[in-house]
Write a structure and sequence with these properties.
Layout lengths: L3 E8 L10 H21 L4 E3 L28 H13 L2 E10 L3 E9 L5 E6 L5 E3 L6 E3 L13 E3 L4 E4 L8 H9 L4 E6 L13 H9 L2 E6 L1 E2 L9 E2 L3 E3 L5 E4 L6 E8 L1 H10 L1 H4 L6 H5 L3
Parallel strand pairs: 1-2, 2-3, 9-10, 10-11
Antiparallel strand pairs: 1-16, 3-4, 4-5, 6-7, 8-9, 11-14, 12-13, 14-15
Helix pairs in contact: 1-2
Length: 296
């Protein structure tokens, strides 16, 4: 396994009206992202990550049961199967964030991880679920209406090119899971997101570089762009980026346009930074019991 890996992350707008049928969203968004993945692979990307629930608008702006139609089984649903074939053909690892249905009516915000030979390696389910309004129009991040909290922990996937972990959007505000991904061996952590300008924008380039430094890994943060009808709850401000274990930005995308962002990472830097700072050696887990026992 080479220490040099080109990573590709894709930020994109959703140009389908949110009042149209769910199937229309999925069909057009999947077609669009297949083309973007092919372009990223043609430019040398070996690990590619899409944005949070990539195949449609950020429907959590409203509470409407029609969006349950967007959910699929993972890995047995059609979208995972389709991207398994694509990953095999392109010899790329794909991190595929989709809306997961389990059983008859249990739903998760999930990312499937597909290896470069097309094999399904497993999935991460978003652990931290927000539920908050952002204005007086009734729109907000109504995610508890759509998702159960994840129940698979913080897995790390040993892909053909690197050991990778996934954190999804709101997870990024919680350092505990970010640390567990490091402890579980992650070399690159991907955070596919859907976040709008306003309250949290100033944290976008603050929290995640801090996670990368504290845990000694690369981190790739992905955000969509544009506004989405009919909600128009705010601007998805893009600015996807890749940051190294020293907190230095490897690559940063634009604020307002579809973009394939590529970054070349050197896995040797992970070892160098961890050997220099020794945060894992000096941590004191035996003193942290109160973190899980105390209730605020």
């Amino acid at each position: 396994m080479s220490d040099q890996v080109r990573v590709g992350i894709i930020q994109a707008s959703n140009d389908v009206d949110g009042e149209k049928p769910v199937s229309i969203h999925k069909e057009k968004a999947i077609e669009k992202h297949i083309n973007l993945v092919k372009q990223a692979a043609a430019k040398g990307a070996k690990i590619i990550c899409l944005q949070e629930i990539f195949y449609g608008p950020y429907f959590c702006s409203e509470q409407n049961v029609k969006w349950y139609e967007a959910a699929e089984e993972v890995p047995n649903g059609p979208t995972t199967k389709l991207f398994q074939k694509l990953a095999k053909n392109l010899e790329t690892v794909i991190v595929l964030p989709i809306y997961e249905k389990e059983g008859i009516s249990t739903y998760y915000n999930t990312a499937a991880v597909i290896d470069a030979d097309g094999s399904y390696l497993g999935k991460y389910r978003k652990n931290h679920i927000p539920h908050v309004g952002v204005g007086n129009d009734g729109y907000g991040f109504w995610e508890k209406f759509y998702f159960k909290p994840g129940n698979l922990g913080y897995p790390v996937f040993d892909t053909a090119y690197a050991k990778i972990g996934v954190y999804i959007c709101y997870d990024r505000h919680f350092p505990e899971g970010a640390r567990l991904l490091g402890l579980n061996g992650a070399e690159i952590v991907f955070n596919p997101s859907a976040t709008v300008a306003g309250l949290s924008e100033y944290l976008w380039k603050l929290e995640q570089p801090a996670h990368a430094v504290a845990n000694g890994y690369f981190l790739a943060a992905i955000n969509r762009v544009g506004t989405e009808s009919p909600w128009k709850m705010g601007e998805f401000y893009g600015q996807s980026y890749i940051v190294d274990p020293r907190g230095e930005f490897v690559a940063v995308a634009s604020r307002d346009k579809d973009e394939i962002l590529l970054g070349d990472i050197d896995r040797k830097k992970i070892r160098e930074v961890r050997d220099t700072w020794q945060f894992y050696r000096d941590r004191r887990p035996e003193t942290y019991d109160d973190m899980t026992e105390l209730i605020p």
